[in-house]
Amino acid sequence: MSTATQKTESPAPPPAEGSPSVGTLLLQGLRSNMRQYGMLVALALIIVIFQIWSDDILLRPGNVTSLVQQNGYILILAIGMMIVIIAGHIDLSVGSLVAFVGAAAGAMMIKHDMPWGLAVVLCLLIGAAAGAWQGFWIAYIGIPSFIVTLAGMLAFRGGTQILLDGQSLSPFPDGFEKLSTGFIPEMGPYTQYHNPTMVIGLVVCAAAVWQEWRARQQRAAYELDMVPLGLFFVKCAAIVAAVMAFTMTLSSWHGAPYGLLILAVLFVLFSFVMRNTVVGRHVYALGGNQPAAKLSGVRDKRVTFMVFVNMGVLAALAGLVFAARLGSATPSAGLNFELEAIAAAFIGGASASGGVGTVLGAIIGGLVLGVLNNGMSLVGIGTDYQQVIKGLVLLAAVGFDVWNKRKVGS
């Protein structure tokens, strides 16, 4: 690597040619993660605006806990929908499948007195079977996913009406309802905060910092550009501050709800699968360029089939969580859930052409919608205006994605 000639009037030598400056590294990082960072900034701004507008109600511990419980099932759906969209498909049936699984759970537990643990396992198997049915027609027969899942949306909604005969079933067993409404029990000596939740928060902070350091070491091993060490520490400090602020907010109420633990496990699992496994790379390759992926040895039919099986299982889990929170199985459950999940995925950085997106982005997109819904309700904005605002947010997010692609390509 050649070095630039030092100017006589400058006491310090300039950086070597080809060695990126701090500003260049920051710009490169922002460009490569523009959608994700942009949505993080948007989420922070939305929180600040509604915190002020609602007279500090938004971030009260009780409201934060309610926000987590109210949006848990949408975030579960958003994770699965993000993977479906990355693979280059869409699933319109998840809302109806949520209702169908909830109806099946009600029939098993309430009508037939089945133990709720066994009923949960059977409902997850029903979701897997529904996903396999749709995945078969999409992957092996070649029918577009839009048509297959549209048919599934109608079929599962009709099946819900048949199972429930147009009536709601309640109540569910207490143990089952705790899946959505329960909290981690308190342990240890009395403090002002919920001890187990604080321990979990500290573990998450340590894991996040270790992951950031591991990623930095991997970039160093491959001699890739890295941000300066000082900026790296600032980023880690920001992550720790955000996690601990959220942890202490929950700990000052009843602690972490079980629904948050379910969501955390799913986030860690699917983030690892999509980033670090062959299956995850195949999903990205398939959505990015299917012909090239097939020529590279990707089993496109098998990958597509498994993507929809996974979506079916997650939809079933979301249906169980929603039924547990509602305390009953109702024919109208899951209405527009598919639209919320699709919107969360696109707001979180998914590309309509496939091959782009992250699990973290799906969570961020779902939180943007969740905070918007909660904040607008707190300040008294009607549901009609809420729909208009959410539609404009979705349009802006996808429009930003298109603009960003054109700018990068130019």
UniProtKB/TrEMBL annotation:
It comes from the Bacteria. It is found in: Cell membrane. Keywords: Cell inner membrane, Cell membrane, Membrane, Sugar transport, Transmembrane, Transmembrane helix, Transport. One of its GO terms (molecular function) is transmembrane transporter activity. It is a multi-pass membrane protein. GO terms for cellular component: plasma membrane. The chain crosses the membrane at residues 37-53, 73-102, 114-131, 137-156, 226-250, 256-274, 303-324, 344-372. Residues 1-20 are annotated as: Disordered. InterPro entries: ABC_transp_permease (IPR001851). It holds the Pfam family BPD_transp_2. The keyword Cell inner membrane applies. The keyword Manganese does not apply. Part of the binding-protein-dependent transport system for D-xylose. Probably responsible for the translocation of the substrate across the membrane. This is Xylose transport system permease protein XylH. The gene is gguB.
